[in-house]
Specification:
Length: about 450
C-alpha cells in the first residue's frame, strides 16, 4: 500500500493547524500570546546557569512546546501580501523550540566562560571573604545581574562568551571598538541596510509587475528565453541582497540596544556577515562568510546525528556531518511554510543537499590537484553555483509561494513608498518611457 506524503501532510495540517476562519488580528493581547514562547525560553536560559536544575528544565520544556504550538497556530494572516508576518512567526517558533530543547539537554554548553576577577569583584582583596552588597546600588545590581546574564545567553546566537561559542567562526571586526564610534558605525549600517531593503522590497514586492504574478514563477512566460532568464537571475541577486539587508537591519538594531542600554562591550556584537559576495568557494561561503547564527542548531540537530549515522553504516563521519547539516538547513527553511499550511516542497531541500554534493566536489578537486578552489576562478564558481542552482531552486521556491509579492516593510515605515514612488509616478505621468509603479 503506497502512501502519498502530501496527502498525509495535508491531513495533519487540517487536524493541527488553524484555517483562515480562525484568523486572529494582532493586538496587545494577541501579541502577548505571540511572544509567549519567549517566557519559558528565558527561564530555561536562566536555569542553564544553575547546576542541578535538569528536572526543572525538562518540566519547563513541556511548557515551551505548548506555547510554541499556540504561537505558531494562533495567527493566520489572510492574503499573500500578509504572508511574511506568518512566516516570521513560524520561523520564530521553530528557532525557539530547537533552542529550548538544546538548552534543556546541553545546559553546560550555554554557561558563560569564566572571567578574570577585577579588584572588588566577588572577593575582598584584604581578607579573601566574599563581598556582600551593602549599598542600594549594589543590591539592585545583584538583582539585575541574573536578568542581564540571561539576556546575554539568549542574544548571543553565535555563543560569544559561552562555552559552545569557542568553535563558532566570527567575522573580523572592521568597526572601531570605542563605544561612541562603534555605535555611530553600527547606526550607519542599519540605515544602509534599511535603504537597500526598502528599495528592493518595494520594487519587487510592491510594484504592479510582481503583484500581477503573485505566487507565480519568476520565469516570466511573456518574455523571450534570454530575457526570461536574465530577469530571473536579477531577481535572484536582488533577493540575496534583501536577505542580507534585512538580516543586518535586525541584527545591528539589536546591537545598538544591547551596547547602549545593557552596556554590552562592542566585542560581544561582531559583524553578522563577512562580505559573502566575495566568497571564493562554498567552504569559504558557508564556513566563514555567511552568518553563523544557526551554527549551534545545525550542528546539534544535523551535523552530530548525521556523523553518528554515517559511522554506523561505515561512511565517513565528516561526510555524514556535512549532509546532516544541510538536511536540517533545508528543514529549517521549509518547515515555516508547512506550518503555514503549504504543501511540502522539494526545491529548498534539493538546493541545500546539492550544496553538500558540491562541497564534496571541492574537496575532491583539492585532493586531485593539491589546490583549493579559490581566487578569481573561485568567485566565478560561486556566482555560477548560486545563479544556476539558486535561481530555480531557492528563489523560485519562495516566489512560487508568494514571498516576493508579500509586504516586507509596511507602507507607513517605507520611505520609498511614501516619497520616492509618488515622485517617480509624477515623472512617469509626464513621460512616454517611464513605467508607472503601484504600491497599493
Amino acid at each position: 500500500m503506497s502512501i502519498n506524503p502530501n496527502v498525509t501532510l495535508e491531513a495533519i495540517q487540517q487536524t493541527f493547524l488553524s484555517t483562515a476562519a480562525d484568523y486572529v488580528t494582532l493586538d496587545p493581547v494577541t501579541w502577548i500570546k505571540y511572544l509567549s514562547p519567549s517566557y519559558p525560553l528565558f527561564f530555561l536560559a536562566y536555569l542553564a546557569q544553575k547546576p542541578g536544575t535538569y528536572t526543572l528544565r525538562v518540566l519547563v520544556l513541556h511548557v515551551l512546546v505548548l506555547t510554541v504550538y499556540q504561537s505558531m497556530n494562533s495567527f493566520v494572516f489572510v492574503g499573500e501580501r500578509h504572508l511574511m508576518p506568518k512566516l516570521n512567526c513560524n520561523m520564530y517558533g521553530v528557532y525557539t523550540l530547537t533552542k529550548g530543547i538544546d538548552i534543556t539537554f546541553h545546559a553546560q554548553d550555554y554557561r558563560k566562560l569564566p572571567k578574570k576577577l577585577k579588584k572588588g569583584d566577588g572577593f575582598s582583596k584584604s581578607d579573601g571573604k566574599l563581598n556582600v552588597p551593602t549599598t542600594l546600588y549594589q543590591r539592585v545590581e545583584a538583582l539585575v545581574f541574573p536578568i542581564r546574564e540571561t539576556i546575554e545567553v539568549l542574544s548571543t546566537t553565535r555563543g560569544i562568551g559561552l562555552h559552545f561559542g569557542k568553535e563558532v567562526p566570527i567575522a573580523p571586526e572592521t568597526r572601531p571598538l570605542d563605544k561612541f564610534e562603534f555605535l555611530r558605525s553600527t547606526i550607519r549600517k542599519v540605515v544602509r541596510a534599511y535603504i537597500i531593503a526598502d528599495l528592493l522590497s518595494t520594487f519587487w514586492g510592491g510594484t504592479a509587475l510582481h503583484r500581477a504574478r503573485a505566487g507565480g514563477s519568476i520565469y516570466l512566460s511573456n518574455l523571450s528565453w534570454p530575457a526570461r532568464h536574465i530577469v530571473a537571475i536579477l531577481y535572484n541577486l536582488s533577493m540575496g541582497t534583501m536577505v542580507i539587508a534585512f538580516g543586518e537591519m535586525g541584527y545591528y538594531s539589536a546591537t545598538i540596544q544591547a551596547v547602549l542600554l545593557l552596556s554590552d562591550p562592542p566585542e560581544a556584537w561582531p559583524l553578522l556577515f563577512d562580505r559573502p559576495f566575495a566568497a571564493e568557494s562554498l567552504h569559504d561561503f558557508w564556513g566563514r562568510r555567511w552568518h553563523q547564527c544557526l551554527y549551534r542548531i545545525l550542528k546539534v540537530y544535523g551535523g552530530t546525528p548525521g556523523g553518528y549515522l554515517a559511522e554506523r553504516i561505515g561512511v565517513s563521519k565528516k561526510l555524514g556531518e556535512l549532509f546532516g547539516t544541510f538536511f536540517v538547513t533545508g528543514l529549517v527553511h521549509e518547515l515555516p511554510f508547512v506550518a503555514a499550511g503549504y504543501p511540502l516542497g522539494w526545491r529548498l531541500m534539493a538546493f541545500f543537499m546539492v550544496q553538500g554534493v558540491l562541497m564534496v566536489m571541492e574537496r575532491m578537486w583539492r585532493n586531485v590537484t593539491g589546490k583549493r578552489v579559490g581566487g578569481r576562478p573561485g568567485n566565478i564558481w560561486m556566482f555560477c553555483t548560486f545563479m544556476v542552482l539558486g535561481t530555480p531552486l531557492f528563489t523560485e521556491a519562495y516566489a512560487m509561494r508568494g514571498v516576493g509579492s508579500a509586504i516586507h516593510i509596511p507602507r507607513i515605515f517605507s520611505v520609498t513608498q511614501q516619497i520616492l514612488v509618488p515622485v517617480w509616478n509624477f515623472l512617469a505621468s509626464r513621460s512616454t518611457i517611464l513605467p508607472r509603479l503601484s504600491c497599493a
